[in-house]
Design a protein that fits this description.
The chain is α/β, with parallel strands linked by helices and about 170 residues long. Helix content is about 40%, strand content about 15%. The chain contains five helices and four strands; from the N terminus they run βαβαβαβαα. Strands 1-2-3-4 form a four-stranded parallel sheet, covered by helices on one side. α1 links the parallel β1 and β2. It starts with 7 loop residues before the first strand and ends with a helix. The relative contact order is 0.16.
Length: about 170
């Protein structure tokens, strides 16, 4: 008899979010910001990878790349990379600081905000994330500053180049 394979394991790392979209399944306003600790996230990822070796690991929330959550999120991907999980996915709204969700939807990132976006994108790449899904839809247009989402997408596309530069022995 053939066993059933575990295809994908999904981690809801937090209920914290910088938005409160009416379509969201998480409904952060109904929770108290519960968030996995990096230690708990790493322990769960190790157990799952060791015993089930899924094809895919996915992290989402709330917003899994907020400052208070990013370490837990990336620790899951680091473990999955160590265990050679092929698909390491992350779902994000592209708004990576809590107060950015309160900006007008027409806001454009400042130079300092752009540097932070680039830093997060480099960390995501270095942690071994292989696929990022940006949540960009009709509901976000009224709530979140879309130029930040576009900046996040562009930074993620460039992150491999930046990470390679950071890890180069010639720097």
């Amino acid at each position: 008899m053939r066993s059933i394979e575990i295809e994908r394991v999904e981690f809801i790392v937090t209920y914290r979010c910088n938005s409160n979209c009416r379509h969201c399944l998480i409904q952060p306003s109904e929770h108290h910001g519960e968030t996995m600790t990096p230690e708990f996230a790493r322990e769960m990822a190790e157990k799952i990878c060791m015993h089930y070796h899924p094809v895919s690991i996915m992290t989402f929330g709330g917003e899994p790349l907020l400052e208070s959550v990013i370490d837990a999120t990336l620790s899951i991907h680091q473990v999955a990379k160590q265990y050679r999980i092929h698909h390491r996915q992350l779902l994000t709204n592209g708004i990576w600081k809590h107060n950015w969700g309160q900006k007008p939807s027409s806001a454009i990132p400042t130079a300092e905000e752009q540097r932070y976006i680039e830093e997060v994108a480099s960390r995501v790449h270095a942690a071994g994330v292989t696929h990022v899904e940006l949540s960009l839809d009709l509901f976000h247009q009224d709530i979140l500053p879309l130029e930040f989402v576009f900046a996040a997408g562009a930074a993620l596309r460039r992150s491999e180049e930046h990470t390679s530069e950071l890890q180069s022995p010639n720097t």
